[in-house]
Specification:
Residues 222-276 form the DUF2179 domain. The protein has helices at 3-29, 35-47, 51-70, 72-95, 107-127, 135-145, 151-170, 172-196, 209-220, 250-260, and strands at residues 199-206, 225-230, 237-246, 265-271. With 285 residues, it is α+β, with helices and mostly antiparallel strands. The protein folds into 2 domains: 3-196, no CATH class; 199-271, Alpha-Beta Plaits, CATH 3.30.70.120.
Length: 285
């Protein structure tokens, strides 16, 4: 399966899961949230506006004014996600009125579960190259106009305004549970990233470097950096190989080294960020 097919499947699955989260988990539990969805929930409570339709209406001006900042491809994907997920939210709510998977009186459990499900869905959407739209766009628009203001401060101010509004409409307790849900969601997104598309840097100190380098290039499709090294105890000349692979390639790398040079010293550690010519063979957040 090629990358475009994976992106499409992730976009489809993430959109459906996000819609289910909003319609069947978040709304019946009466837990607040931030962003456009939080505003839509509050307006639904006040005026019985449909959540999905309200989300579309609120997102339209943001996409219009922020189109140039987002880029054509990202804006198109995000627009499709917002449109389809919003329609699904209202459709699911219509077909399953008063239906809730979570216990109505246990808001703590509901906030944790909502955080996990929304985190998985949003990670899928990020990996597909899109987003759920919302106030991130308005923050970028504001940042473009007032370049001296930090983006983090703009996002914080927006969140505070939304949570104050949600607290007034849905009650202060809903904001507390929303903060719990937000924390769980961010950790879930990080966990999905770590489990699916994280990379590892590997240091290999060995004698038979040429065969290992050749197999790494052929089997894993990775370039390597080679340095001369001297053993501090044995004083023997060795080769120091540095290579970055994705987590799912570690098993193959271990087998290559074990078959060629079982006595090689190997150290593996996580990589937080990679710049430069590095091919991502799986999708990432």
């Amino acid at each position: 399966m090629n990358t475009k097919s994976k992106q499409f499947l992730l976009l489809l699955a993430g959109t459906i899961l996000y819609s289910v989260y909003a319609a069947l988990l978040l709304t019946p539990s009466k837990i607040g949230t931030g962003g456009i969805l939080g505003i839509a929930l509050s307006l639904n409570k006040l005026f019985n506006f449909k959540i999905g339709l309200t989300s579309i209406i609120l997102n339209i001006p943001l996409f219009i004014f922020g189109f140039r900042l987002l880029g054509k491809k990202f804006a198109l994907k995000s627009g499709i996600i917002v449109l389809v997920s919003s329609i699904l939210m209202d459709s699911i709510s219509t077909f399953f009125p008063n239906f809730s998977i979570l216990p109505a009186n246990d808001k703590l459990t509901a906030s944790i579960f909502c955080g996990v499900v929304s985190g998985i869905s949003m990670a899928m959407l990020f990996m597909s190259g899109g987003s759920t739209g919302g106030l991130d766009i308005s923050a970028k628009i504001f940042k473009n106009k007032f370049k001296s203001v930090q983006l983090s401060h703009i996002l914080l101010f927006q969140d505070l305004c939304v949570y104050v509004f949600v607290g007034i409409v849905l009650g202060p307790h809903s904001v507390l549970y929303a903060l719990i849900m937000s924390f769980i969601r961010s950790k879930t997104i990080d966990t999905v990233q770590e489990g699916i598309a994280s990379s590892r840097q590997c240091i290999i100190i060995c004698n038979n470097s040429e065969k290992i380098i050749e197999e790494v290039k052929i089997e894993l499709g990775r370039g390597v950096t080679v340095l001369d090294a001297v053993g501090g105890y044995s004083h023997n000349n060795k080769k120091f190989i540095y290579v970055v692979v994705q987590k799912h390639q570690l098993t193959s790398l271990r087998l290559i080294i074990k078959n060629i040079d079982p006595l090689a010293f190997v150290a593996v550690s996580p990589v937080n960020d990679i710049l430069g010519n590095y091919k991502q063979t799986s999708l990432s957040v």
